[in-house]
UniProtKB/TrEMBL annotation:
Protein name: NADH-quinone oxidoreductase subunit N
GO CC field: endomembrane system; plasma membrane
Protein family according to the UniProt entry: Belongs to the complex I subunit 2 family.
Annotated localization: Cell membrane; Endomembrane system; Membrane
Domain NADH:quinone oxidoreductase/Mrp antiporter transmembrane span(s) in chain numbering: 144-444
GO biological process: ATP synthesis coupled electron transport
Organism: Streptomyces qinzhouensis
Taxonomic lineage: Bacteria, Bacillati, Actinomycetota, Actinomycetes, Kitasatosporales
Keyword rRNA-binding tagged: no
UniProt cross-references to Pfam families, sorted A to Z: Proton_antipo_M
Oligomer status and interactors: NDH-1 is composed of 14 different subunits. Subunits NuoA, H, J, K, L, M, N constitute the membrane sector of the complex.
Length: 529
């Protein structure tokens, strides 16, 4: 298919014919088209049949994942300049496919966790449209190779996420979280657009490869450096790097749990993908600007996240979600380390970030799946509510313990240990000894709260207080601030099929990666660009 008709050769003008490789752009297109079809179908599907919309979303995401298979043969490009076929706006390479698999797989697990939620609490049509639209933007971003497409993909991924956070109607906490998320994100995007305009003014191009080779005049060098710094801000916000992290805990707590899981993984994938592309491909000549800045951000981010996570009390309402929120901030600091190292070393360190991100996506989505499962019977979702989970749901307790050990980097979570070692090695190889020391300290800090939560899972259940005949259970009469004795996890409820599938997929993937870590660690040993 072509986007324009050719101009006569004797006119002395280059052809404007643009071929579109539909196989290459299939993953984001399938997600976007599925979202549009579900939005239209929602007008005609009766209320008692709304569950079909969720199944359609799951089918669309599976089709989008399947469309990645033909792209494994080699790099493919489309939307290239007619005057220079090597300069393209969309590239499907190893980096793109890895991030698209992470994004679409994470969206699929989010959809599984949301099937029951959309039947009872959330408007189905709007939810599935917003989720698929955000996933389409997130899948487009790693393939983007010009700043205009990067910013558009960033906003397509972000704008539906604002609505997803505030979609729980009548919930003040949800509305406040969505507003805070929206205002901070819009501010960061405005700053990023200003930076992009500075970069374009200094280099005369928006394509990443041309920016990297542009000959910037000396009187425009300061403008270019300012543009580089400002451009990074929007992506730093998406990664929840300090000081752009303050939206995370309130947003995760206010959002529906599946949406919080989505933001913790896919939102970070979007931010890190953009950050990698603009630093390594577009701005390698300005590594003296972004290298030290990202190194400092990495140290501050992992430290702030771990310290805040350590302060979470076991009896605090929604403490489990808050701990995972601060844990995600700390993990973002580890993910920033290889990007910072790339600014100090000629070796390609980015593969370590990709390997770590794939590990983190699997285990963090699995942990959120367990949290959402426990929230069905313990609406306060305190860490103390997980006490005795082993006695009522042994498989779920073992699975959650495994996920927490992976995040901590302890056996049997081998993949978490190896991922941390690769990140640590990238800092050492780049000569960032001070950052490696800070990372080691933060790994030890993380062990405290991860092991503390793991121990709660296997402790003996607390004695439930005696109740008078007809009195409501303690959980139903609990206060919003989480005060009082924490009841044991005594109610044995059947695990819904979508939750079971999500837990099975994440646990199987985690065990497989721990047994054969080369599946993701190979990214750390090869050049991606």
């Amino acid at each position: 298919m072509t986007l324009a008709t050719p101009i006569a050769a004797d006119a002395g003008v280059a052809s404007l014919v643009q071929n579109v490789d539909w196989v290459t752009i299939a993953p984001p297109v399938i997600a976007a088209v599925t979202g549009l079809l579900i939005l239209v179908a929602d007008l005609f599907v009766p209320a008692h049949r709304k569950g079909l919309l969720g199944l359609g979303a799951v089918a669309g995401l599976l089709a989008a994942i399947a469309s990645l298979v033909p792209l494994r043969a080699g790099d493919r490009r489309t939307f290239c300049l007619t005057t220079d076929v090597t300069t393209c706006s969309y590239v499907a390479d190893r980096f793109t496919l890895a991030i698209q698999l992470l994004v679409l797989g994470g969206a699929l697990l989010t959809a599984l966790l949301s099937l029951r939620e959309t039947r009872h609490r959330l408007p189905a049509g709007e939810f599935w449209f917003l989720l698929l639209s955000s996933a389409a933007g997130a899948a487009l971003l790693p393939a983007s190779r010009d700043l205009a497409t990067l910013v558009v993909a960033l906003e397509v991924a972000s704008l539906p996420a604002f609505a997803l956070v505030g979609l729980r109607r009548g919930d003040r906490r949800s509305s406040e979280a969505a507003l805070k998320f929206f205002l901070t994100s819009v501010t960061a995007t405005a700053v990023t657009l200003l930076g992009v305009s500075f970069v374009y003014a200094a280099t005369g191009s928006l394509h990443l490869t041309r920016i990297a080779t542009a000959n910037v005049p000396g009187d425009l060098d300061t403008l270019a450096r300012t543009g580089v710094a400002l451009t990074l801000i929007g992506f730093a916000f998406k990664t929840a790097a300090v000081p752009f992290h303050f939206w995370v805990p309130d947003t995760y707590v206010g959002a529906p749990l599946p949406v919080a899981a989505y933001l913790s993984v896919i939102g970070k994938a979007v931010g890190f993908s953009g950050l990698i592309l603009v630093t390594v491909i577009a701005f390698p000549g300005y590594a003296d600007v972004w290298g030290p800045a990202i190194a400092v951000l990495a140290a501050l981010t992992m430290t702030a996240g771990n310290v805040a996570a350590l302060r979470q009390r076991a009896d605090r309402a929604l403490g489990a979600v808050r701990l995972l929120a601060w844990s995600s901030v700390a993990q973002a600091g580890f993910l920033l380390v290889p990007i910072a190292a790339a600014g100090y070393s000629s070796d390609d360190q980015i593969g370590s970030t990709v390997a770590y991100a794939l590990m983190y996506a699997v285990v963090n989505l699995g942990a959120f799946a367990v949290v959402a499962l426990v929230a069905r019977t313990h609406r306060l979702n305190r860490i103390s509510d997980y006490r005795g989970l082993w006695t009522t749901h042994p498989v779920t307790a073992l699975t959650m313990g495994f996920f927490l050990l992976c995040l901590a980097g302890l056996p049997p979570g081998i993949i978490g240990l190896f991922a941390k070692v690769t990140v640590f090695s990238s800092a050492v190889d780049a000569g960032l000894g001070w950052l490696a020391v800070i990372m080691g300290i933060n790994v030890a800090l993380g062990l405290v709260y991860y092991l503390r939560w793991t121990a709660v899972l296997f402790r003996a259940p607390a004695e439930a207080p005696a109740r008078l005949p007809g009195e409501a259970p303690a959980e139903a009469s609990g206060t919003a601030d989480g005060s009082g004795a924490a009841p044991a996890v005594t109610a044995v409820a059947a695990v819904p099929a979508p939750f079971a599938v999500a837990l099975a997929l994440t646990a199987t993937a985690g065990i497989l990666l721990s047994g054969y870590p080369q599946l993701v660690l190979r990214f750390a040993a090869t050049r991606l660009f």
